[in-house]
Amino acid sequence: MLKKLRNYWNKMTLPIDEGQEAPVLPLKGVKGSSLVPNKEDQDSPRVEIDLDGLKKLKIMVDSGDEVNISLAFQLIKGLHLTSLDLDFLIKDRDKRDFICFRNGYLTPFADLNVLDFGRWKQKITTIPIEIAELVLLKRIILPGHHLQTLPAEIKHLCQLEWLNLYDNKIDHLPEEIGELRGLRWLFLRDNYLKTMPPSIGKLKGLIRLNLSNNHLTSLPDEVGSLPLLDELNLNNNRLTELPESIKHLKKLTRLYVKDNPISFKQRGELRFLLPHTKIFF
Fold first, then answer.
1. What is the percent of the chain where pLDDT is above 70?
2. For residue 236, which of 138, 166, 155, 162 has the smallest C-alpha distance?
3. Any alpha helices (H) in the chain, and if so which ranges?
4. Which SS3 state, helix, strand or coil, does residue 148 take?
5. 152 C-beta neighbours (distance < 10 Å), count
6. How remote is the C-alpha of 124 from its chain's centroid?
């Protein structure tokens, strides 16, 4: 693969006016070629790039061809690029953020506490596994996209407190979501979930859980292991009953179960199990 990339790169030509030499950006480590290994980092070779190389990358990114864009980012992941270099490649910030994220190049987001892509018009279908690199994240806000699940690598976001993924196409969650021990707010309304993984019970700091407008037919017993849960929204699902373990939610003040096929008998049992909770049927 690397050999194919190298051959493709070397065959690329740039449009140059007659009599004009190709400009070269005087960067440390550059010796006339477009891509030169950085000698200061031999264990994990990174590459310096001159203006010729940037122009080649820009041609690939601007082509609009997904294969070319993917190849470009395979190269970019091994480069030392500045914010000015990225601005040269893709001037529009929203477009740049979208393309970088979709292709797993998350260096521009490394110092973020909040990842908010709710404003994007373009829709992402997957969260890249490189999300594990963003260890400073406290909030992820990705509503209105086409996500179907989360990568297992989400477990590395130890500081994450807020996860908002409403209005996606999520039909299951990985067990690794239970490793987000700092999570306090989890919003998953308007998705396609049929159940939740048992590891949900590990989220001991969870305060709000919104699972409304899904396809839930059951909840695991472990949902009763959330000692700080204050609000649980299960509106508009397919639940006929809730696990008896829900009686252990001593901090629960509001339970929403509207538009579920819950019998009058089960409603009475819920009131008995949660005498201090306001239940909305």
1. 83
2. 166
3. 2-11, 51-62, 66-76, 83-89, 93-102, 264-273
4. coil
5. 14
6. 9
Q: Are the C-beta atoms of residues 246 and 229 closer than 8 Å to each other?
A: no
Q: Which amino acid is at 253?
A: T
pLDDT digits (tens, 9 = 90+) for 151-167: 999 999 999 999 999 99
To the nearest whole number, what is the mean pLDDT of the chain? 86
- What local confidence, expressed as pLDDT, does residue 46 receive? 57
DSSP-assigned beta bridge partners for residue 278? 254
Q: What b/e sequence results for 233-257 when a residue is b if at least 16 CB atoms lie within 10 Å of its CB, and e otherwise?
A: bbbbbebebbeebbbbbeebeebbb
Nearest to 255 by CA among 229, 277, 224: 277
For the entire predicted model, the pTM comes to 0.81
CA distance readout (Å), 180 to 56, 176, 205, 229, 230: 41, 8, 9, 15, 18
Residue pair 234/256 in contact (Cβ under 8 Å)? The answer is yes
E-only strand ranges, the chain: 35-37, 47-49, 114-116, 139-141, 162-164, 185-187, 208-210, 231-233, 254-256, 278-280
- As a whole number of Å, the CA-based R_g of the chain is 25
Residue 215 tokens, joined: 């396809």
The phi and psi torsions of 187 (rounded to 5 degrees) equal: -115, 115
For the CA atoms of 22, 25, 29, 31, the dihedral, rounded to the nearest 10 degrees, stands at: 20
Closest CA to 236 of 260, 210, 270, 267: 260
| Cβ atoms 235, 258 nearer than 8 A | yes
Q: Over 50: is that where the pLDDT of 28 sits?
A: no
